[in-house]
Each structure stands twice: as structure tokens, then as C-alpha cells.
Amino acid sequence: MFLSKSTFKKGIVIPSLIFIIGICLLSVFLPTLTVHILDTVKEFIFINLNWVYVWGVTLFVIFLVYLMFSKFGNIKLGSNDSKPEYSFFSWISMLFAAGMGIGLMYFSVAEPMQHYSTEVFATNHYINRAKNAQLYTFFHWGIHAWAIYGVVGLALSYFAYRYRLPLSLRSCFYPLLKNRINGKWGNAIDVFALCSTFFGITTTLGFGVVQVNAGLQTLGVVPESSFTYQIIIVGVLTLLSIISATSGVDKGVKILSKINIITVVVLLLFVLLLGPTVYLIGSFTEGIGNYINNFFSLTFDTHVYDEATLPWFYSWTILYWAWWISWSPYVGLFIAKISKGRTIREFIAAVLIIPTLFNFIWMSVFGNSAIWFDINIAKGALSALADNPDALMFKFLDYMPLSGLVNYLVILIIIIFFVTSADSGIFVMNSIATKNAIKSPKWQMVFWGALLAILALMLLNTGGLQALQTMTLITALPFSIIMLLFCVSLVKALMIDSSYYERDFSVSTVPWSGEFWKDRLKQIVSFKSRESVDQFIETTVGIAFEELQAEFKQNDIEAKIKLLDNPKRMEIEIRYDLVNNFIYGVKNQVKVVSDYVMEEENLPDLPDKKTYFPKSYFGDAREGYDVQYFTKNELISDVLKHYERFLEIISEEKNEMFISSNANKKMS
């Protein structure tokens, strides 16, 4: 009875669990072999297919910038009158905590220090090495990373809130797959997303636990960094994550995200004001300029002309692009969950610019402070610890005032960052596994949290965490292709969306009055066959043209009528020697009807997906329109309207070249 209340979808959950548990068991019992195999695959991808990541991430940036400045930017992620569910501060806090989170604490000192001390840049002067360290850190944590998250988040929120489809990756393929997203293809996409999310969260949990353990050891709270203490840490953090996830996004996740952003800003200001302030402000300013100046060269740089830097390129830039891509299903789903009611322009601007700017400030303050201390005070002691990122943050803070108190604050921030990442991850995984069920039993959240904790501890104990991380990076390659298809699907949908709201009333409805409303209602709700449209052309159109021809003759104007086949069409033509001929015609046009209309009970049955209508055409490149509702007199009036336009144009001297009779020669 307890399990019968489950909202899990078997087609998603069962294959996902088999794959997740299978990979984790291989990593636990055969860690060396699994790591060797997966590393071989990863190395092949990074060396031979790194251009896929480079081009993919570049296209994501270009795509989002284009949408932000295009007419599509005004489209809302929801109905046109929808309002955002969260305040701007709450929204930014949650997407930031889920998007980068614990990585900022783990890499804010470690990455700049590793770039600064790497042998790749060892021949450079220490000033150039410091500049490179900041530049590449900005590059890896800047607009490119958030563009990856932004593409997935935008596609998900658009199709979920605008098209009212489930908040699921499968929905992003709707313009390409239509109703097939509800079948095996859709399940396969969601299985991929669920596994990718689980692997990413598990890997983060492992790194977070190790760093918290190292921090507690530094403070003397625990005597050592051992598996026993890691079990306790995992248990406490997972319990907090489950409590937060079961309380919902509106409570636990939002509250923790707000607390986190406030504590992070406090820590940031502490280091900025009590550290080398002038140096930090100056280096940040110069770093922004350096980033802007090198933006395009960094974006397209594959290091192919400098083989000595290729291993560094694979281990940093390509690894980062793969890492962000592998995390994008989880982060994108969570961002989409909290972004209803925003416009596309607002969404892209906030996701690309605000977190990027904060990352730059954060990385400058911590990374540049560490480098400054290493050069001026520590005399290389910090750069010597570059390969030990678990303890590097705490060693760096030893050079700051009140280091003991600040270390406690850092551990608190890491814990909250971890909990906000894990609780949103649990929430997202349950959402994928249930196809975004409105309400799920709380035991399902407990299930995902427990599974995360158990498998993470098993991997930590056996050293299999590296294998899982490598597996996560490998999955980024196929998902980068999926993301490119998201872009194609999104453009297709946005063009339809824009056309829908920009389309005016049909031209054929302009002359309507209420006189023939009953007949016109019958015409509107019925589908036309080829034969009925042919009959309309031969009768209504034919009679209208004959009356026009007779009246033209009374005014000494010769008009000819042509009736042609394949398709059936009739036109009235007035020939001229020096200017283009005037032509007004009506042809039988076919139109394919959508599946939804075919299945609609309120409309008449249609034997196939085709319907027909009479469409006007002219002796130039202008697009015609549907004239099926015109009466004979309305059709005559429409021809005269176009004839008056024709005479007005040819009477203007500036149009002489355009209306040359050369066009008649081509037509004859």
C-alpha cells in the first residue's frame, strides 16, 4: 500500500536505476579497471572530439545573445499575462546556488593557484602568470558556462510554460518529434537526464564531504580526515537535504539559498576589505578588460599550434565544458522550475550576466588574494599546495585576520551550498522520474537522498569516485548534440509563436458585415475538397471575372480571362506595352492540417490530412491570400482594389525601372 502511492514512471525509473547502480557497482568492485576503461574513452573524446565542445559552447553563447536582442526577447515564459513566481532576489539566489554552488568554495583559490603554478606557464614572468591565472579562471566560470545552463533552462521553461508541456527534457523536442515525445524516445531522453543528474550530484557530494572533513580537521574539530567521519558528514548533510527537499522549493530551497547568498557576500567583503584591497580592485578591473579583449580568441582557441599546452587544454577547458554540459540537465531543470513568468530577454540577461559578474568578483577576490599572499608573505607556501584543493582554502585563510572564526563560516557556507545543491538535485530527480507529477509522496524524496548517500559513501570508501566523475564527463558528448537540437527546436517554436501573435485577421474577413453570418459560419467550420474549390473557381470566380471583363470593355480596356489546370486556376489579365501586365488570379491551394485538428471532436471529420482553399495570386512576387469566403461582389471589389494600386504605382515616375515591360517578355 505504501509503495502503491508511488508516482514513479517505470519506463524512466527502472532503466535509470539499472544503469546508475550498475556503473556504481563496477566503480566500487572494479575501480582500477573501470577508471582505466572510462579514462581511455574520455581521453579519446577530449583529444579527437574536443572541437565538438568548443563549437557547441560557442554556438550556445551566440544563440542566447541573438535571442536576447531579437524580437523573440519579449516573449514570456508562460502566458502573456503571467507574472514571476519569485522575487528577483529569490530567483537569482536559487539559480546561483544550484548553478555553481559548492564549486565556488572548492575552486575559488585552487584553480587560480593551479593556473599560476602550472609548468605550462612556468616560463612566463610571475606577473603574466598571475594575469593568465585570472583570465582562464574567468573564461571557465564566465558567460560560456552559464550559456550552457541557459540553453537547457530556457528550452525547458519555454516549452513547459508556453506550450503547457511537462517540465521534462523530452518536451524540448516537441517541434521535432511531436507526440512521439510521449513514447520510447521521450523515455530515453529522461533516462539520460536522470542518470546525468544523479552522477553529477553524487560526485559533488563526494568532493564536498572531503572538503568539509579537511576543514573540520584544520579547525581541530575532528582529529583526522577518515572514512568514519565522512560517513557522519554524509549522513548529516543528506538528512538536511532531504528535509529541505520535502519542504518544497518555496520553503527549504528558497530560504537556504537566501541565507547562502548573504553569508557568501559577508565572506567576500571580509576578504576584500581586510585583504590587499587596492590590489584586488585593480586586478579585477584589469581582469575584466583582459577578458573582454581576449573573449573571441579564448572562445575559439584549440591550442593546436602550441602542443605543449594541449594536455592543460584537455584537463581544464575541455573538462570544464564537459562538466558544465553534464550538469546542465539538472541545473537547467531547476532554473526552469523557478523561472515561470520571466521574459526570454530577462531570463537570458539575468542568467548570463549576473552570476558571471559575481563569479568574476568572487574569483578575483579569493584567487588574486591567494596569489598576492603567495608572492609577498607565504613565499610559495600556497602554490606548493596547489594540488591539494581540499585544504587550500583553509590554508589561505590562515593568512587573514580572525582565521579561526572565518574558517567556521567557510564550513557553514560549504554545508549550505551542498544542501542547496543536493536538495534541488533530489527535487529535480524526482521530477524527472515522475514526468513532473504535481504531487509526489515524500518517501520518494527520501529514496533519492538515501540512494545518493549510500552510493557516494561506497565510492568514497573504494576510491571509485573518479570513475563516476569520468562517466559524467563522457555523457557530456552526446548531450552536447542534444542541446544543439534544443536550439533548433526552440527556434522553430519561437518562429511559430511570433507568427501566431503577429498574424492579423485574414484579408478575406475585411469586407465582412453581419449580413451573411450563417453561411460564413458553415464555411469556417468545414473542410474543403479539391472538387469544391475547383467549383468555386469555375462559378463564383468565373462569374466575377466575366462581369469585370464586360465592364472593363465598356471603358475601352481589354481584359482577358484564362482558365488553367494542374492546379485549377483562373486569372484576369490586362496587357500593357511599356509596363508590366496587371494580373489577378485565383488558384486551388492545398494545406496540411495538424494532428490536433484531425483529432478534434468539435470539427468535422477529414478523410486525410489535406484540405483545399482558393488562394489569390498576382503578376508579381507578392504573397496571395485565402478568398474562399468572398462573395462575387466582394471578389470584384478586391480585384478593383489591386487594379487601383497597380495604376497608382505605374503613374509614379520613380517606379519606371521597376515596372519595365521586360517582365512581360519573361512571362510570354
Automatic annotation (TrEMBL):
Annotated keywords: Cell membrane, Membrane, Transmembrane, Transmembrane helix, Transport
Cross-referenced InterPro entries: BCCT_CS, BCCT_transptr
Domain of life: Bacteria
A GO molecular-function annotation: transmembrane transporter activity
Protein's cellular compartments: Cell membrane
Transmembrane segments: 12-38, 44-67, 88-109, 138-161, 188-207, 227-249, 261-281, 313-335, 347-366, 405-433, 445-465, 471-491
PROSITE patterns, per database record: BCCT (PS01303)
GO annotation, cellular component aspect: plasma membrane
Signal peptide: none
One Pfam family in the UniProt entry: BCCT
NCBIfam families: bcct (TIGR00842)
The family this protein is said to belong to: Belongs to the BCCT transporter (TC 2.A.15) family.
UniProt name for this protein: Choline/glycine/proline betaine transport protein
The species this protein was found in: Sphingobacterium detergens
